[in-house]
Amino acid sequence: MTGDAHSQSDARAKILSAIGVGRAADLAAEYASLPRDYIREGALPPAERLDLLEHRLCEYDAGVYRCTPQALPAEIGRILTARGKSRIAIPAALPPQWLPSGFAFFLADEFSPSQLDGLDGLLSGCTVAIAATGTLVLQNAPAQGTRKLSLVPDYHLCVVDAGQVVETVPQAFALLAPTMLLPTTFISGPSATADIEMTRIKGVHGPRFLDVILTT
Q1: What is the DSSP letter of 88?
Q2: How far apart are CA 43 and CA 184, in angstroms?
Q3: Total-model pTM
Q4: Half-sphere exposure (Cβ direction) of 126: Cα atoms closer than 13 Å
Q5: 60-104 confidence digits (pLDDT tens)
Q6: Count of CB atoms within 10 A of residue 139's CB?
Q7: CA-only gyration radius of the chain, Å
Q8: Residue 210: helix, strand or coil by DSSP?
Q9: Which residues contact 55 (CB under 8 A, 6 or more apart)?
Q10: Which of 24, 88, 162, 216 has the most Cβ atoms closer than 10 angstroms to its Cβ?
Q11: Strand locations in 128-194 (E)
């Protein structure tokens, strides 16, 4: 090895050492030793937890509705009609009893982005919802589908059961631990971004319009 090559090798080793490459065990121990004195468990009763989720979602400009499980098909139909949506993507294993009559539902997990873009929106479930942040968590799982389903359509109607709502982010991550390797999308309101002049644009990397039905 020439002197220059040896110097380069030493420099590379120092850089990699500095950023932690090769120290996985040490880094894991350091991470485990970090203090975790932040709030991890929620203290709100179920009714207040749902109220907090609804408040956060409304702050993000999402539509929020409540109904019983038995009334869900009628509520879905009412919301889709009010939105003027009739051709709706659905993921595999969406409960068929959710679907109202009078609409065209397309099993769309294998649809291309252009095919999805040609539909009016998406109807799905979720894995968990976080009240403190107003966040819906979707995974590549039954009734939720592949990630593109929640990113391409311009409209998303998501059904959340009251039992899926937790108060804090740590509680949500504890529930997600068994399925942590699945593709996962965190949704906090309709998609929006702002440029350097603070002009807000909706629908850049997901739906412009989000409705949520809480079943209780």
Answers
A1: E
A2: 26
A3: 0.80
A4: 30
A5: 999 999 999 999 999 999 999 999 999 999 999 999 999 999 999
A6: 20
A7: 22
A8: strand
A9: 134
A10: 88
A11: 128-130, 135-139, 155-161, 165-166, 184-187, 192-194
